[in-house]
Specification:
The protein is built from twelve helices and nine strands. It is of the alpha/beta class. The protein has two domains: 159 residues, Rossmann fold (3-Layer(aba) Sandwich); 150 residues, Rossmann fold.
């Protein structure tokens, strides 16, 4: 018999299912899907790291062809909190022996796992692989394309702070290296779904066609971009992925686009500061603001990430409607 916490979760879900079997893009999600994910995530958050048996007898493989700290730990803990067995496969997998991504993922799928969490440096890998395996594939970011679970945890952080069901009437200002950012594409897609106005503040050298493709307003003056905004969302300069050649130096970048107390004070009085991590203190965000400041929601994002990923794993590993994913074994 389910204990009181599991009964609480089952009552919250209320027999609902999401419309997708894999998650590789925010574009897949309807507003109803987002509502279901968030309702369940909030309840999981209340129960913190309680060990549920909701996904007992299910297994997950974390397939991380690229390095990760927060995302990999979060997905692994989320699965374990649901009583799933987990195995992690890293960059030392058979891909290094010239095995294709497809052969690797189909090999892992043959163990009859329920979920495969995939991170790679190439755009579209998770979507392509999802078509050829029975397990549900979750994109833990694919190159400079998308990072959907990061956007989902960002979204719930904003909505819960403002106490609203959408972001209509709110302005989100994204500051930093959008050219090399993994979260940027998914964040913009989700904010648009939720009705937010989006501003982008970045040096012209690391602006991309994304700005035009998403019909965004680009600001070269960070003070103007931040003025009266509701969310200041900063991105780090990703030197390890080529950003070093796009800015004179990190010190110069910090002077022009780093978030200081003075700059944050230009935002709306109840504005919040967010960052997907890892934070480069005193470059992206001045050190005093990064965690201890009351306006910083960076650690709240991390906590919400665990809850959102638990929600997704339960929804994808167990369906009330009994529907089965269709796929092609090639």
């Amino acid at each position: 018999m389910a204990d009181i916490r599991e009964q609480d979760m089952i009552a919250t879900r209320d027999g609902r299912d999401v419309s997708f079997f894999d998650l590789y893009s925010i574009d897949q999600l309807s507003l109803e899907d987002i509502e279901i994910i968030y309702d369940i995530a909030r309840k999981f958050r209340e129960h913190k790291t309680y060990k549920f048996s909701l996904n007992k007898w299910c297994s997950q493989v974390n397939v991380f062809f690229e390095n990760s700290t927060r995302t990999q730990a979060s997905f692994d803990l989320a699965a374990k909190n649901l009583s799933m067995d987990t195995v992690s496969v890293g960059s030392s997998s058979s891909v290094k022996k010239w095995e294709s991504y497809l052969d690797t993922i189909q090999t892992l799928d043959s163990y009859n796992v329920k979920t495969l969490v995939v991170r790679s440096s190439e755009a579209g890998v998770a979507e392509v692989l999802s078509r050829h395996v029975q397990a549900s594939v979750l994109n833990a970011w694919d190159g400079w394309h998308e990072h959907p679970t990061q956007a989902l945890l960002d979204g719930i952080t904003m909505l819960d702070y403002f106490g609203t069901k959408d972001l209509k009437g709110k302005t989100v200002t994204i500051v930093g290296d959008i050219r090399h950012s993994r979260p940027f594409g998914s964040l913009v897609r989700l904010c648009k779904k939720l009705g937010a106005e989006i501003r982008v503040a970045t040096p012209q050298t690391i602006a991309t066609s994304h700005v035009e493709n998403f019909w965004l307003t680009l600001y070269g003056d960070i003070e103007e971009a931040i003025k009266d905004t509701d969310v200041v969302y900063t991105l780090r300069v990703q030197e390890e992925r080529g950003a070093k050649g796009f800015v004179p130096s990190l010190r110069e970048y910090s002077k022009m686009f780093g978030i200081s107390r003075k700059r944050l004070d230009l935002a709306a009085p109840d504005a919040i500061l967010m960052h997907p991590g890892p934070v480069i203190r005193d470059i992206d965000v001045h050190s005093a603001l990064s965690a201890v400041d009351s306006q910083s929601h960076i650690l709240q994002q991390v906590e919400n990430g665990l809850a959102v990923r638990k929600s997704l794993l339960w929804l994808l590993a167990f369906r009330y409607d009994g529907k089965q994913k269709t796929f092609t074994r090639k």
